[in-house]
Amino acid sequence: DQDDTVVRRRLRQKMEFISESVADAVEPSDAQLQEFLAGNALKFATSDRVSLQQVFLSPDRRGDALRADAAKVLLALQSAQAPTDPAAAGDPTLLPPAVALASVPDLEAAFGPSFTQRVPALPVGQWSGPVESEFGLHLVRVDERIAGTTPSLEDIRPTVLREWQARQREQQSQAALAALRDKYDVQVEGPAARLFADEDDNDGA
Questions:
Q1: How far out from the chain centre does Cα 110 lie?
Q2: Model-level pTM?
Q3: Would you say 45 and 101 are in contact if contact means Cβ atoms under 8 Å apart?
Q4: Which of 20, 21, 42, 59 is most buried, judging by how many CB atoms fall within 10 Å of its CB?
């Protein structure tokens, strides 16, 4: 029980279990959960979502004419002179020609960060661009944009409760460890002792 690593690990796990069980036994009120939700709104907020169509123009296929071609295709799309299928106005690609109510992470996974960063500034209901991505140029029509919101506590109470309990367990565990440390005088020996001595000098300064 003094130098056995396995025994010491099991003792630590038992202490952590006892500490966490104390935290789990506390049932928060709706007021506490509402306060937690308000204080961590970004954690629970839904992502902005967007529906869009895109026409891809390949730099490998078009070379130096890429941007000039993009301007011509954009004009055709805006004047409804493009093919019935907008994607046919561009170059073949494995990228999706359209996405419906995609979140920011979804867009970034499909088109990359540089494309995704430009989308919020694009107008709704008209072809615009070109928008550059890691793959090439895109002409984009945003059909719908829904701003992210923070759901009400009623809608996501189980999720808020789970996160609140996790925070309580963490705080309870830290408090228990701090109480245990206060009972001991910790001395660091060997080469590492100088590091802690330097920290003590800095604290004193």
A1: 15
A2: 0.56
A3: no
A4: 20
